[in-house]
Amino acid sequence: MQTYLLSQQFNARSLAENSTACPANATICNGTSCVLPEDNFNKILSIILSTVLTLLLALVMFSMGCNVELQKFWGHIKRPWGIFVGFLCQFGIMPLTAFLLSLVFNVLPVQAVVVLIMGCCPGGTASNIMAYWVDGDMDLSISMTTCSTLLAMGMMPLCLFVYTKMWTDSNAIVLPYDSIGISLVALIIPVSFGMYVNHRWPSKAKIILKVGSIAGAILILLIAVVGGILYKGSWIISPKLWIIGTIFPAAGYSLGFFLARIAGLSWHRCRTVSLETGMQNTQLCSTIIQLSFTPEQLELMFTFPLLYSIFQLLFALLILGGYRVYRRHRVKTKTDVEKTEEKEDSKSMSSHAKINGGFVSNETK
């Protein structure tokens, strides 16, 4: 009987514990929304995954550099019209779009700030991988990512000062210049080696590029999985942030493409500018908000960068799928047209030969 009562008490206690939405070690608990402290497992896993992702990113950027020609890259630097258009998209369209979305949806001040931080971030390296898959201008893509990361050191404080004044003091936002510098170095060094390999050994560069494109796909999937593993805990995300997280990257892709087209850039460069505009450096955004806000504020905003990264990837994959379908249809149609033209030419040649007694001129042979 005593054993039965102890068993019943244990079951009741376990049920009570399981019915609690937040674990006992949660630092913040509000209904079903909680923030868990970073445990040893997360720290070890974060170190391991960060090392793997860093090495994989270096490999991918090295391979992307193998598709960049030094003369064309230098041509973009000397005649930076494409880079200038990308600059307007990155630090003109994106911060303004973030500001307008925050106003339209009337989000909380701290949520508006995180949306604006995302809008002010430079382009991410994933855009270089996607630009390769959609047959974009890799020289322009690499130069845009490099310049936007470099210019972010001055443009991010300026944009945040202009747009966040109505919600918070811009001085309260801590910009991790060391992280921006590391991102810049991690981009420039492997790409430079890749450009050198492409210049010296073009045939080997093509092989490296194929391996790197596969590694790029693995990298994007790993980043998505890592976000799901490391961000443990039960979160309630405001429906307004869900909507903004969906609209924002789509607006970036669309507006970047149209502005590039209005500026007179070619179609493959328009695709490049579009991807560079919509794909933001979400890791940098996460770092900034962790350095700048209290745990209570993080509860309302911390998952937005993860949300944005998910939707920017989904829309990028839709763009890639749409482009591949278009290209296949265009190539098929072009081939059919060429075959029809060849048949018509052969018919005209045979009829011409009959009329002229079997003579065919050298021009038609």
Q: Taking Cα atoms only, what radius of gyration do you get, to the nearest Å?
A: 27 Å
Helix content percent band = over 70%
Structural class: mainly alpha
Query: Largest beta sheet: what is the strand line-up?
Result: 1-2
| Number of separate strands | 2
Low-confidence stretches: 1-20, 335-342, 348-365
Broad shape: globular
> How large is the count of helical segments?
14
Amino- and carboxy-terminal Cα gap: 105 Å
Please outline the major beta sheet.
2 strands, antiparallel
Give the ordered list of helices and strands: HEEHHHHHHHHHHHHH
Query: What proportion of the residues form beta strands (DSSP E)?
Result: under 5%
Q: On the 0-100 scale, what is the average pLDDT?
A: 75
Structural commentary:
- The chain is mostly helical and 365 residues long.
- It is 78% helix and 2% strand.
- The chain is built from 14 helices and two strands.
- It has a two-stranded antiparallel sheet with strand order 1-2.
- A hairpin with a 2-residue loop joins strand 1 (28-30) and strand 2 (33-35).
- The longest helix has 52 residues, at 304-355.
- It is globular, with a radius of gyration of 27 Å.
- The relative contact order is 0.14.
